Amino acid sequence: MLQSLAGLLQIAETRGTGPATTFEPAHLLLSFITIGESGTIGRGALAAQSGLGEGAIRTIIKKLRRNGYVDANASGCFLTSVGRRVYESIEKMLSPMVLMRDSRLGMGGTQAALAVRGGSKAVRYGIEQRDSAIRVGASGTITYVLKAGKIAIPGGSDDCEKDFPDKGWSELRRKLDPGNSDAIILCGAQRETLAMLGAIAAALTLL
User: Fold this and answer.
1) I need a surface site. Which of 19, 36, 125, 202 has the fewest CB within 10 A?
2) Rounded to whole angstroms, how far apart are CA atoms 207 and 200?
3) Which pTM does this prediction carry?
């Protein structure tokens, strides 16, 4: 699974003969996941959902098509059979994204959460995840881990639901369905697209 993801992300590092790309691996992965979730999506809608300009999206789609992950028709772009297999691998590593509203569990006007399956073993104190999210424009992240069925913060609370009561915990459990050894990324930003992008960037540090 990781090999499939690495092959996909390598596209973001490949430089062409034109102007330098204006996106990072997290942008490409968020765009790829958005295409997979949508089935078929137009370039303008993909740009809006990923927070990138249409020029950058045009470059991403071109790279994905050239490498056989995506194709396009008059209705928009969609995953090929190769892209679909990679997308299914990603679904086993990352939960669907959840947007949190009216939650006190994180920072920023909007928060996006996802679970990284088996990611807790790679978490130290959450600093690397925070820095990766900030680098793409998010306000920051909190990284939680599942320990003996409890949601914990490394170096902090061993039972966040008990120590910091909030209705958001039940929403995270219901929508992310985290299991022992999973990590939960909660990323905050002033815009939804930046919160989602930051969550993806943080998750990549655990894969």
Assistant:
1) 19
2) 11
3) 0.91
pLDDT tier at 17, thresholds 50, 70, 90: very low
| Domain spans of the chain, in order of start | 2-92, 94-204
Nearest to 114 by CA among 86, 143, 72, 156: 143
**9 forms bridges with which residues in the sheet?**
none
- Check: CB of residue 186 under 8 Å from CB of residue 105: yes
CB 37 within 8 A of CB 13: no
With beta carbons less than 8 A apart as the criterion, state whether 28 and 69 touch.
no
Tokens of 42: 């137009």
How far is it, in rounded angstroms, from Cα 194 to Cα 207? 20
Dist CA 165 CA 169 (whole Å): 8
pLDDT band at 109 (very low <50, low <70, confident <90, very high): confident
In angstroms, the CA 36 to CA 50 distance is 13
Predicted local confidence at residue 15, as pLDDT: 56
94-204 is a CATH 3.30.1360.30 domain = yes
Span 2-28, mean pLDDT? 76
Going by the DSSP 8-state scheme, the letter that residue 96 receives in this structure is P
Out of 65-69, 98-102, 126-130, 162-166, pick the least confident.
98-102
